[in-house]
Amino acid sequence: MSKLIVHGGTPLQGRIIPSSNKNAVLPVLCATLLTAQPLVLHGVPDITDVRKILDIFGKLGSSVQMDYASGVLQLHHHDTHFDACKHHLPEEMRSSIMLVPPLLARFGVARLEDNVKGCTLGVREIDPHIEVFRRFGGRVEHGEGSLIVRCDGPLQATQHWLDYASVTTTENFVLCAATAKGSSVLTNAACEPHVQEFCRFMVMLGARIEGIGTSRLTVHGVEQLGGGEFHFEEDFHEITTFLALGAITGGDVQVRNRTPDNFPLIDRTFAKFGVQIEHKDGWSRAIRKGPLKVETPFTRNVLTKVEAAPWPYFPVDLLPIFIALGVRAEGNAMFWNKVYDGALGWTGELSKFGAHVFSSDPHRIVTLGGNPLSPAVVESPYIIRVAIALFMVAASIEGRSEIRNAAPIKRAHPRFVENLQSLGAKVEWAGEN
Asked: Ranges for the Enolpyruvate transferase domain (predicted)?
């Protein structure tokens, strides 16, 4: 069991160069299977999910040259082959499902394990993906412990309106549509920054996509895609995480950020807890004057709220980070997860620090901040930024704490502990396998 040992109470100081967003990198890696031309990707992070996908590429016969020190990946899928009876896609990784469209396009068949999953955020159905595959002409069959998707001939263009703006379903639609016969239209498409980055990569390959950054995408299928070179952006999740770490510890952390246009709502959310964000010369900085304090709404009979939903709402993945700030701030705040029904069950762990958190229902909690906290041993569920949120609280409290089951952090944040130590944090991994 991997756990973080934290000796908290040290204000973090310094500068951080963030990594790329795994939610952009993983779909891009899956998309590379659509082309037999050579590719060079810059800024590929050394995280467990990347290693799993590159491992399956090697087993499929692709040429994979990865330099984790520089983050440069050279890929060439020219001799790639796939056997649905022999090759298993990575398990315990939600992004495995995005390997299905390129495998269908190149080999006419794909196999997906029944237990494909990501973080434990409640029930995460695959029905929207199955519907997309079928709309493009795929046949879905149940195998022993797996799903087999087949297609005779090229995928056929379609029009589709999603039930909700799902990131992965949107990306699967684009992956199918890129080389399908005809023009495809998706309404209620997700438009998060990482979806836009993924679409820009597809355009670099030669895909014809209209409406990037909006809720309606039109994709004109092409016969084949090419190669090229692509540079990933910094992860806005990681930028926000380190800014929040600086704020909660009373320190001064600056994070490189070349996409400040993604941050107006995130900046306003920081302000609700007494933290001002400054963007200057390609860097972002969290400025805290005095204690964290929940902003009082103009309408005084309501609570300050952080409502998380698909972009351009406040990002759901960042909600735990701000719950940690809410626990440490004076005053009360409501946090509302409008997407996942199992994403707030961990907040009981905060009570081990002495925090007061009221669960309204599966989607809403209220933090009753300003209470004195003490070090604790806490258990994180398999959710990346919940482990980070628990660490944030521990880092803000003098004394020794443990964050157990913290390994999910490695799925998104390379060199997380090393970066923290460079800022002065007293933290280390323990109990690693």
From this structure: 7-420
Task: Enumerate residue ranges in the chain where pLDDT < 50.
Answer: 117-124
Q: Strand 377-379 vs strand 399-404: parallel, antiparallel, or unpaired?
A: parallel
CB-CB contact of 92 with 115 (8 Å): yes
Spatial distance between the Cα atoms of 393 and 390, rounded to a whole number of angstroms: 5
**Residues 266 and 259 sit within 8 Å (Cβ to Cβ):** no
Q: Residue 119: what pLDDT? A: 43
> Quick count: other Cβ atoms within 10 Å of Cβ 398?
11
Query: How far lies 200's CA from each of 94, 101, 229, 313, 342, in Å?
Result: 22, 18, 12, 22, 32
128 φ/ψ sector (left φ>0, alpha ψ -120 to 50, else beta): alpha
pTM to 2 decimals? 0.93
pLDDT for res 126: 87
Of the candidates 404, 407, 400, 384, the residue with the CA atom closest to the CA atom of residue 7: 400
Amino acid letter, 384: I
Which class for 33: exposed (0-12), middle (13-18), buried (19 or more C-beta within 10 A)?
buried
Angle, CA of 103, 214 and 270, to the nearest 5°: 105
Contact 308, 316 (CB under 8 A): yes
pLDDT at 265: 98
The answer to whether the CB of 116 falls within 8 A of the CB of 94 is yes
Determine the Cα–Cα distance for residues 181 and 132; give it in Å rounded to an integer. Answer: 15
Nearest alpha-carbon partner for 383 in 337, 331, 329: 337
CA-CA distance, 44 to 232, in Å (whole number)?
Answer: 7
Q: What is residue 116's predicted lDDT score, i.e. its pLDDT?
A: 55
Please report the pLDDT score of residue 115 as a whole number: 53
Helix (H, G, I), strand (E, B) or coil at 125: coil
How many whole angstroms separate alpha carbon 118 and alpha carbon 224?
Answer: 31
pLDDT for 148-170, tens place per residue? 999 988 999 999 999 999 999 99
Q: Are 387 and 380 in contact, with CB atoms under 8 Å apart?
A: yes
Helices 22-31 and 167-177, interaxial angle, to 10°?
20
DSSP state of 334: E
Using CA of residue 282, residue 287, residue 293, residue 299, what is the dihedral sign? negative
Burial class (CB in 10 A: 0-12, 13-18, 19+), 107: middle
Angstrom distance (rounded) from CA 116 to CA 276:
40
Calpha distance 226→240 (Å, rounded): 34
Residue 246 and residue 428: Cα distance in Å, rounded? 18
Two structure tokens written together for 287:
């400025």
pLDDT at 296: 92
